[in-house]
Amino acid sequence: MAENKVLLDHGSGGKISHSMMSDIILPLFNNPVLAMLDDGAVLDISDISSKKIAFSTDTYVVDPIFFPGGNIGDLAVNGTVNDVAMCGANPLFLSVGLIIEEGMLISDLKKILKTMADAAKKAGVNIVTGDTKVVPKGKADKIFINTSGIGILPDNVNVTGANAQPGDKIIISGTIADHGITILSSREDLKMTSDIKTDSAPLNYMVKAIMDSGNEIHVLRDPTRGGLGTTLNEIAAQSNVEIKIKENAIPVKSAVAGMCELLGFDPLYIANEGKLIAFASPDHAEKILEIIKKDEFGKDACIIGEVLPEKSGKVYMETLIGGTRIVDMLTGEQLPRIC
Amino acid sequence: MAENKVLLDHGSGGKISHSMMSDIILPLFNNPVLAMLDDGAVLDISDISSKKIAFSTDTYVVDPIFFPGGNIGDLAVNGTVNDVAMCGANPLFLSVGLIIEEGMLISDLKKILKTMADAAKKAGVNIVTGDTKVVPKGKADKIFINTSGIGILPDNVNVTGANAQPGDKIIISGTIADHGITILSSREDLKMTSDIKTDSAPLNYMVKAIMDSGNEIHVLRDPTRGGLGTTLNEIAAQSNVEIKIKENAIPVKSAVAGMCELLGFDPLYIANEGKLIAFASPDHAEKILEIIKKDEFGKDACIIGEVLPEKSGKVYMETLIGGTRIVDMLTGEQLPRIC
Known about the structure:
The structure is a homodimer.
Chain A: H1 15-28, E1 41-44, E2 52-60, E3 66-67, E4 70-71, H2 72-85, E5 90-101, H3 106-123, E6 126-135, E7 143-153, E8 169-172, H4 178-187, H5 204-213, E9 217-221, H6 227-239, E10 242-246, H7 254-263, E11 277-280, H8 285-294, E12 302-308, E13 315-318, E14 324-327
Parallel strand pairs in A: 5-6, 10-13
Antiparallel strand pairs in A: 2-7, 3-4, 5-7, 8-11, 8-12, 9-11, 10-12, 13-14
Helix pairs in contact in A: 2-3
């Protein structure tokens, strides 16, 4: 039945676009700024004393769009919430840009938008402006979602990938590779154990607790595409330092580790969507670790390595058998459309 | 040759993604914030006294991606610059989210990114954060671009589609239907006269001149998808007023009018990408018109109608032959993928 599917008309900007906005989108994302229906959102920041904002964007093209533990909708909200938070900022506002393939089931669209609304509520951010485009069947794959986010940065924060310092301890907030292995297993229709689901989660409360504590933090980064291995390489290069991690310290769920072994993937390069890496000064690392562990999404946090004084820009790993190997950036594409 | 095409690897987040960023994107969009390569941009707004920001997003899926007068790149920059400006704000920062189809020519991508960089420079905005995804061949159509923008709102501005007031004069900044007819003609490979090209242009300097003049302005809106007819309907509904326009006052280039007649399209519903509608108090309308006419993109500006005291939420047009007809919103899809 055609009325159950998204039509090209839904993206026309005309009457049917407006009915989709008023019938489907506004009730779910309801907030007064979005309901103004202007070309942009006007946001009052007068109660904010800070003079810096953080701004980030990410487009989500994950395949499949539904998977154990979530769907493309909460992935898109949490992903940008986290990117803003990784600047040390407190995310407040999100935009949503939808590209929908003609013929998508309206029930699927509603389910995704509902998940986005719920994820935004959980993260404490408002979806304040948006845009919907519909492209003819075969010109996109079901739905692609862009989210952009604005956050407010506390004063005197200098959290950046370029700020890693010799002696820093490296904390990971939990197990790695959950998201990527979930997507891969869903796509290949592999039999999954109940232990494997996406780790997609908002990390902004965890970051706020760290920032509010006053402990010295130098780098925050979420190891998404490219995984922990690539992210550590980015930081080593940006900060011109050497990083050393210990394989036996890196938490991986046994079901995920088993799947990685079965499929021939290295968990170091598999995407995460609800984990962060924190580089903390050695005196403050234990305190920050305790703060992270208190967060709903940080229970399995631990210290996995440290920053060495060498200026090699490289990442090394002490392996399980006691050797040392270089951890390079991901080369080539392991898993397309993982987020 | 494979090296001339975008590969899935370019979207992996790994080594080849990074080389695309450093070899292609950074040199074009060069600015210190983007070059930080963090997950988000940290923006200093300490020299800004205003306490309101404007935030807007738009995704561009235009087909074809190259057309007379521009390409998807400047369209994406100008479109979001204009949406932010239509809030009465001064756009400063843009994000760019790319979805690229595997196999796209790198030369085409470079050309588009170069156009984006040039358009951003012309509009005086900085591209400060971005994201690139690559999807397998056949899962998107060449390239889709999302841009989101942040602007600063002067104090005491209340420009919104909900603020049209009885007596307001309605100004259009130039000829209508240029962009939509350009795209349609390109797509159908119709023989085009040199008069027909996109009107894509940044309108932020025009808006700033209006705002700085202190003249009373109630509504600013750019009539993109759905055209002038749909945009006026949106404003009539948001403000709960009646709008009357005069057909003989609406500027349409003769080549565009001819093409509309030939193809059976009503120029009222054809997209514009470099025009604005301004609702101004009657005492200030002529002064605002003069300001618009002085702008590079406002030479053909004129007053096309006014706001009546009736609360019908409808739009009427006095036709060329002296009758009056209702102008409804666009129903159905005239032109998919026009922007």
